[in-house]
Every structure is written in C-alpha cells, then in structure tokens.
Design goal:
Blueprint (H helix, E strand, L loop, with lengths): L1 H12 L4 H14 L3 E2 L9 E6 L2 E6 L5 E7 L4 E12 L3 E9 L12 E9 L7 E6 L26 H4 L3 E3 L6 H9 L6 E10 L4 E3 L3 E4 L2 H16 L5 E7 L16 H10 L4 H5 L2 E5 L2 E2 L21 E4 L10 H14 L3 E4 L12 H8 L2 E6 L1 E2 L7 E4 H16 L1
Parallel strand pairs: 1-2, 4-13, 4-14, 14-18, 15-19, 16-17
Antiparallel strand pairs: 2-3, 3-13, 5-6, 5-10, 6-9, 7-8, 7-10, 11-12, 12-20, 16-18
Length: about 400
Amino acid sequence: MDKYINDMIDFIDKSPCGSWAAYNSINMLQNAGFEKYTGEIKEGGRYYFTRGNAVAAVVKCGSNLRIGAAHLDSPGLVLKPSAELVSEGHYVRLNCEVYGGAIVSTWFDRPLAIAGSVVIDSGSLMPDVKLYNSKRPLCIVPNCAPHLNKEINTGFVYNKQRDLPPVFSLDIERTILEVVAEDMGISTRDILDCELFCYEAEGGRLIGDDMISCGRLDDLMMSYAMLRGICDANGNNTSVIILTDNEEVGSLTMGGARGSFACDVLRLILGDNFRNALDNTVALSADMAHAVNPSHPEFYEPVSRPYLNCGMTLKRAADKSYSTDPVSGGAFKHICRNVGIEYQEFLNPSDRRGGTTIGPMLSAALGVHTADIGAPILAMHSIRELGGTRDALDAYRLFKGYFEM
C-alpha cells in the first residue's frame, strides 16, 4: 500500500499538466518493455501510440479484448499569449484563462509553479516541442483582505478576468518568456509559441494514514492505476488502454475522446474487421466519482452514496451522461468479485444534473458496452482533491485483474 501510494503521488507531482502526464506515461510504458508503434504489430508485442498529448498502450496476446480509458488533463489556469499585465505601474500579473471547471477560490494565496509545452523554431514547417517545468513557485494569486472587501466571507463572487491573474513580478520589464528561456538555456527569439499552465508548487501529501490530499487526482489516479495495471498484468488477452487529452474542455481535439484516436488504434491492432472482438468485450471508462461530503450530504442521492475507502464506484444516469448499461454494470461487478474488492454505486439526485465523462463518447464511437467507473473523492476540481488510500490501490487491483481475466 505505502509504496504504491508514494509512487502514485510521485507520478502526479511530476505531471503538472497534460503534456507532462503524457511524457511520464510513456516513460512508464517504456520501462515496462513497451515499444513505440512503427508499423507492425506482432503477437506477444507491447506497443504504445501517441497523438498530441493522448497516449495508448497495447499488449497483443490472443483474441480476447480488454479496453480501459481515462484522461490525462485536469482543470487549472493556462496563460494567455503576451501574458504580462502591468497593474498600478508596479505589479506584473499574468493574464490567464480557466481551463475546465476549476473551483477558482482554491487557487488563491498558494505558491504557483508553471509548466507546459514550449514550441521552438526548427527551421522547417514542423517546429520542435519541448517540455518546461519551473519546479519552483513563480507567481501567486493574492486575495483581498476582509478589511477592504467586506463581502469576502459572505458570498463574494470571484471574477475570472479581474481576480485570477497571478502576481508574477515587481519588475515591470520582466516577462514570463524570459524566465522560461533562461531556464531552458535558449533565447526568447527561439520560442514561437507555448502552452503554459500554473500548478500548485506543493506536491501531494498523505493525510493521516488513509487519505491523500493531492492536485489532479482527477483523473491521474485512474490513469496511473490503468498504466500500472497493463504493465503488471500477466494474462492471455489483447489489452488496450486509451489515455485521452482535453476531457475537461469537451474532448473535441486531436487527442480527445471525440476524435478518431481510439478507433485508429484498434484498427491498427485488430485490422478493419474488429467488430467481433468489440461485440465480445466490455470496456471500462475510469474517471473519479463524487464521495459524499459531510458538510453537504443534501447534495447527494438518497440511497446511492459513495464514501472514501469503501470501494470502487459504478456511475450511471438515465440521461446517459454516464455510459453504464446493465451489461457493463454487471461485468464491472463481476470483475470486482473476481479480484476481491468492494464496489459502490453513484447516481445524481433527480433534481440535480451532474457531469459526464469520456465513457459515452467511446461507447458511441466504438459501439461497445462501457462501464463508467472511478474512485470516489472529495473536493473534485479543487486545486487539491481528497481521496482514499485504499481506493487508489483497489483501482490498480481492478484494472490488473480485468486485463488478466
């Protein structure tokens, strides 16, 4: 338990945004003997595929098919081009947008580092893409004191454009690209473009003996468990994981679940006639689930109420915002029984609409029964989310058992 949790937190800490999560996923796969796909699939081979920040991994072994899917991106703050805003002739702030459905209040008064992709002129049409991580705090979003903002504790509404740009420097000539270029040992002139995210500089921590406080548990806890599961599994199945990008903003990108990545990977593995394999399997779409918050139990469904460390969670909805159907729900419960873990169920209360996942997109694109599952957490989409240690390990046991089944 302890080693797995520490390894998972280390993976998440080293993955401050989608591009870094993809990079670290590939490193994990390579260390487990996976090779980059170069045009040939051999029986017994282990391969990985990439498209943008999306990553897929395949173990080709036999005719039985197992498919798992999760996403690598998380809500956060992304810098706009020419990000510097000089305020009051004294402060340099960084103009930013909110990526995904972040709880913006949690981003205040925390030291923020910066990481992402930097595009460098290669001298040809396709530029070079390098990863950047400051690994140290570079900016912070300061709150306004209650002496001045009398409503700060009584329902004050933060304005994303006015309140969120973090303070970066007291030197009004300083630019963020200068810092990036200095850290990378290049000139600012070499940088053609970039996608840079703020992230909390303090990493994940255990809370007591059984809770995990960490940014980006959604959805890197599931992605990590799926990666470890396929790397460690010893079975006679053709196993596939699809780790997509941009789930938090709708998935309509080259690496998103609404694109062709998953179908393209399966065609390469199984050939154009892969319908029979899909008809005889159930896929798992893994995204975090909502545990009951003790401060607001009234927000939850009266009967199906997940709690931390009480089992992996099956999610369903009558409006099909989750992909679970009776076949995939039954298959999920069978897997749990087979590997010896408990399970819970989550539904939204009938008067409150919830979110969705990549499950419906993949189920529709592939035409495969898909169970929407995940570990329950509190404070989803906060800068720090709260999960359970047992749930993290159960996720790994579930996926490893599924790939071996």
